[in-house]
Structures are given as structure tokens and as C-alpha cells.
Specification:
Structural class: mainly alpha
Order of helices and strands: HEEHHEEEHHHHHHHHH
Strand content: 5-15%
Shape: globular
Largest sheet: 3 strands, mixed
Radius of gyration: 20 Å
Distance between the termini: 78 Å
Amino acid sequence: MVFSGLKRRTTLTLTLAFSTGVLAACLTTQTTSGGAVGVDRSQFVLVSSAEVDAAAAKGYADVIAKAQKEGKLNRDAKQVARVRAIANRLIPQTVAFRPDAPQWKWEVNVIESDQLNAWCMAGGKIAFYSALIEKLALTDDEIAAIMGHEIAHALREHSRERISQQLATNVGLDLASAVFGLSRGASDLAGMAANVAISLPYGRSHEVESDRIGVELAARAGYNPRAAISVWQKMSRAGGGSPPELLSTHPSPENRIQDLEVYSARVQPLYEQAKRR
């Protein structure tokens, strides 16, 4: 009986491991074209874009409603207009990576907060925190650098990828559900989508991709791509002993700046072209 139980457990473990391998091999996608920066990594996904976008829309609505209730939403009309004007120049440039992206239901809001943070949920739901703009005295080019980086997370569907990775680690019910047709409750996915976008760290590959796509979006919109370098220098100094939320799990400042030097130079012709328009 002991041997029989051990055999069943071993068989189940092997089956789950094989299933995970099959899923990883089959459920891969390319969410964007490579652009001038050449981002072309294949991605593992278990949930659909539609599910994650709907979940993100609900999660975003909850965050905005909470900020509105607390009197922290869009308190400075001039600041909000500035952020939205920059978004309006960046969003059309997303077509270089995804033809569907300019038609997303984009939303852009500013939340009064002491945190140095900004994010973009799946489907184009953007939030900037006031302290990020005020404490770092950001220029328009630097706001565009941060916003381009956050938009890149949405273009590459990094939240969808992170949610899929989380689900894949649950080898019990979640894996069985994935094999036989994954279906998550709307409230579960909404919570996960919001948590991934706002709180949980993205992987290093996600951050590098977003840095590179971000400088290209900024350049195509006529913002100096080298502003990405100055803004991360500012954020690194602002962090002191503990980095701001946006830097907490990102590549080291030195490695990031080296990479941004290379890729901002690569998209410089796009910036020069945009300035002439």
C-alpha cells in the first residue's frame, strides 16, 4: 500500500511536470513587434488578453474610486493637463509595436501621493503619483520617459505574463484548470491585475524590455530619449539607502544607465525625425 501510494504520487508529479512543459512549449506568444529596439522575446501565457484587460479595468476603477473618495484624484488641474498632453503624444506611437494599441480605452489620471511611483495596467490604464513629478522636478521629457516605460509594460502584456507565471506555480487545481480550460473568477483576476501592476515586482527581463521600448516611444513622440538616463539618475539619488518603488526591483542603476545609453542612441534618429515634423 505504501509503495502503491508512492507510485501514484510519483506518477502525478511526473504528469504535472510533463504538463507544465507542454504548456510552456505550446502557450507562448509574441505580444509586440520588435520595433527599432528589437524586443522579440517569446512569452508564456495561460490567460487571455481579454480576461486580463477586463480585470485591469475593474482593478483600475477601484483604485480611481478610492482616490476620488479620499479627495486625492486629479487635484491639480494644470498638472493633470500636462500629464495627459504627454500621454496624448505617446499613445499614437504605440502603433509601432501593436496596431491595436492606439484604439485601447486609455485612461490617464494623477493621484495625490507621497510615493515616487507610476504605473500602467493592462489595456492602457495609467496613473502618475504627484510626488514623482514634484519631488523630482520632472521635465516633460522625463515624464515621457517614465510614461513610455510604463506603457511598454502594457504593450508587452507583462501583467498577463506575470499572472500566468503565478498560476503555473500552483501545480494542483490551477494547473489542472489550465490543462482542461482555465477560468478564473473576475474578482480574483482583478485583484491580481491590480497587484501585479502596482505592488509586485516585474522580472528583470520585463524591466529591460520596458526601458528599451520606452525610449523608442518617447523618441517617436518627439521627446529626448536621453531623458530616460537623467530621470533614473534622479530617482536613484532620491532613494538614498532604499530605492523608490519604481527602482525597488529594477536592474542596478549602473547597468540600467549603460543599457539606456546604447538604446537611446539607437533611437536618436527617430527623435530627430519627429522634431522635424
